[in-house]
Amino acid sequence: MQFLEEARRTYVAANAGTLYWMLQRPTLGGGFLNTKQNSLTLQDYGSEDGVRGPDFTYGWIQGRGLEALVGHAEFFERELPPLAEKLDAVGRQLYGLLAALQKPDEHAYFCYDRDMTPVYADAAGNIHLQQKPQLIYSYSDAFVAKGLVAAASRYCPPALADHLAYLDRVVASIEIGRFQMDERRPLSLDSIAEQAEDFGPRMILLAAAGMLKRFGHTAHLVYAHRFISHVINRHLDALTGLLRNVPGEDSCNAGHGIEFVGFALDYLDAEADPALIEALERILISSFDKGFVGPGIATTISVASGEPQSPYCPWWSLPEVIRAAALVHQRTGSAASLRIWETAHAAFFENYWRGTPPIAYQTMTKEGPVDFVPATPDLDPGYHTGLSLLAAIRVADHLIPHNQPISG
């Protein structure tokens, strides 16, 4: 019980610190979130840094940030009301900007230039205008749709129907072959035809299920069980308990497997099939025990050998372990899930968390922090870290006797 109480205090303080840090930074483009800081040097990126700099705005980050602002505002209403008020003010502004950005062609894009025109940088770093096919969707659509639904649920209920329909279209695109994973190339059917059958899109859209459920949008949840079943039936390696990125191939993104467990358990109710809970716990244990190589989770590992295939350990997978392990522990009470929770907690706050400022190193290797950007150069706007820790806080409040939250 002592660990739960200490972990809860740590998570509340970390999240509040990050949010205050983010809120005091100058915005991008008149109101977009600005976390464009190098996590090693603590220097803000400038125009000379190209696609890392303030001339480029990432739809991914803004959608994630909007969902995080809403989730944290709801939490801090009771814990720290002045912070909740600030989060709501910024959340309303960002909601208006993102809704206006998405409305003209009913899409969102990975990267926008200074004029808010969708662009992408190719492998050589050259900037190109992005194509805008109407019937192709992407991860950026997924993150922005989730953010818009969360924000409209709190700030603008009359707009909910349109945002929910957008999210439904993103979900449907995955099952009809209209979802493109790689946004650093033209959005096209040709690009989709060349991509592998990775479970990433279903995993990311499964992340919406818990949020939809909390807001009462149950009519839009029918896909969640299909996605869970599909990933387990097509990607789970029965021998190792790992999820193969692509059926029949050897590579495993252990962090994504752990993320999948957390999102599934965030959605599943108390009547969930015990065999499914057991399978999810096994995925967590296998993914962590094989993926955690120190200082964090290796980006990819071999299913056959269990050996890491990359020296890079990004920050985001450890908070996702904290979420998944906490949710597993709430269901099973197992010693293994508590061990994983405690280990990931220690690794994140001892190896990655800077404290001053309240941000994490983006990527580390066994030699220490490195200047390697996992997906977008902007630092986490309370999404991977904040929302993961919020889920663990809810678990702690459930498990602490008398359900009495420990003040942050």
Give short descriptive properties of this protein:
alpha+beta, three-stranded antiparallel beta sheet, 408 residues, 13 helices, 11 strands, four-stranded antiparallel beta sheet
- C-alpha termini separation: 16 Å
Radius of gyration: 20 Å
Widest sheet: strand ordering? 1-2-3-4
β-strand number: 11
State the shape.
Answer: globular
Mean pLDDT: 96
Biggest sheet architecture: 4 strands, antiparallel
Helix content: 40-55%
Element order: H for helix, E for strand: HEHHEEEEHHEHHHEHHEEHHEEH
Structural class: alpha+beta
Our estimate of the beta-strand percent is: 5-15%
Low-confidence stretches: none
What does this structure look like?
The structure is a single chain. This protein is of the alpha+beta class and 408 residues long. The protein contains 13 helices and eleven strands. The strands form four sheets. A four-stranded antiparallel sheet has the order 1-2-3-4. A hairpin with a 5-residue loop joins β2 and β3 (118-121). The longest helix is centred in the first third of the chain and has 22 residues, at 2-23. The radius of gyration is 20 Å and the shape is globular.
Write a brief structural summary:
With 408 residues, the protein is of the alpha+beta class. It has helices at 2-23, 59-79, 81-102, 139-155, 160-175, 189-194, 200-214, 222-235, 254-267, 274-291, 317-332, 335-352, 383-399; strands at residues 57-58, 111-112, 118-121, 127-129, 137-138, 179-180, 251-252, 301-302, 313-314, 363-365, 368-369. Helix 2 (59-79) runs antiparallel to helix 3 (81-102) and helix 4 packs antiparallel against helix 5 (160-175).
